[in-house]
Amino acid sequence: MPKALSDQDVAEFRDRLCDAAEHLFAEQGPEAVTMRQLAQALGVSAMTPYRYFKDKDAILAAVRARGFNRHADVLERAYDEAKTSGGDVSEAVGRAYVRFAFDNPEAYKLMFDITQPNEADYPELVAAGERSRATMTQHLDELIGEGRLTGDKDLIGHLYWAAIHGPIMLQFSGKLAPPFRAERLIGELVAILNAHFFPPAAANEA
Q1: Which residues are CB-contacts of 136 (< 8 A; sequence separation ≥ 6)?
Q2: pLDDT at 204
Q3: Do 29 and 82 fall into the same domain?
Q4: Which residue in 85, 97, 84, 198 sits closest to 150, CA to CA?
Q5: 87-115 in b/e burial notation, b at 16+ Cβ within 10 A?
Q6: Low-confidence residues of the chain, pLDDT below 50?
Q7: Burial degree of 71 (CB within 10 A; 0-12, 13-18, 19+)
Q8: What is the model's pLDDT at position 150?
Q9: pLDDT recorded at residue 147
Q10: pLDDT score recorded for residue 186
Q11: What is the reported pLDDT for 62?
């Protein structure tokens, strides 16, 4: 009979399993990874992962939810630190986004570069994704409230997101070469968007 597991035992094994799954899913693609491979990566029996997750989709959802929450943690911390220091919140959040992507490439790819058709079946994943997206546009609400920015917040947010996400994914896929690295392209694209949404008069008033 399997021993009774404490909440800590469960949490620790789930974390270990998600660590292994994040790497394997990003390296091989979720479809190619089997539950047996995940068990082998942890040195446990083939049936052990089923004590903690219903199936591979549930593991993928947990891995992605964890990524979104880590992403939100980083962006929220950057936002709070910039607010406390009087810094440029938009710039701080943007830098934090890019830093997270390059510090956590496997998690980032699983968050944004795959489609999980049954995503709605996993409330924790949905909540984590919504939290992550909210951290990307929180500063836009303030800019609109201060009258420094006008327009459709969702559209503006997606434009900046595309300007950041596109070069990151191009670099991850090996499509960029010096001097056209992601950071340079992002800087140029964001400067163009800033010039459009924050004309010189608005910038001087700020």
Answers
A1: 75, 93, 97, 157, 161
A2: 47
A3: no
A4: 198
A5: eebbebbbebbbebbeebebbbbbbbeee
A6: 1, 202-206
A7: buried
A8: 85
A9: 86
A10: 98
A11: 97
Cα of 109 vs its chain's centroid, Å: 8
pLDDT of residue 200: 65
Q: pLDDT tens digit string along 132-149?
A: 999 999 999 888 888 888
Question: Do 40 and 92 sit in the same domain of this protein?
Answer: no
Of 17, 110, 125, the closest CA to residue 69 belongs to: 125
Per the structure, the count of domains in the chain is 2
For residue 179, is the peptide bond before it cis, meaning its omega torsion is within 30 degrees of 0? Answer: yes
CA 110 to mean position of chain CA atoms: 8
Q: What angle do CA 10, 40, 13 make, to 5 degrees?
A: 10
Confirm whether 60 is domain-assigned.
no
Residue 111 structure tokens? 């968050």
Instruction: Determine contact, residues 61/125, Cβ cutoff 8 Å.
Output: yes
pLDDT given at position 206: 39
For residue 119, tell me if it sits in a domain. Answer: yes
CA distances from 63 to 3, 14, 194 (A): 26, 10, 34
For residue 3, the model assigns a pLDDT of: 64
Structural domain of 33: 1-53
Among residues 193, 180, 179, the alpha carbon closest in space to that of 91 is found at 193
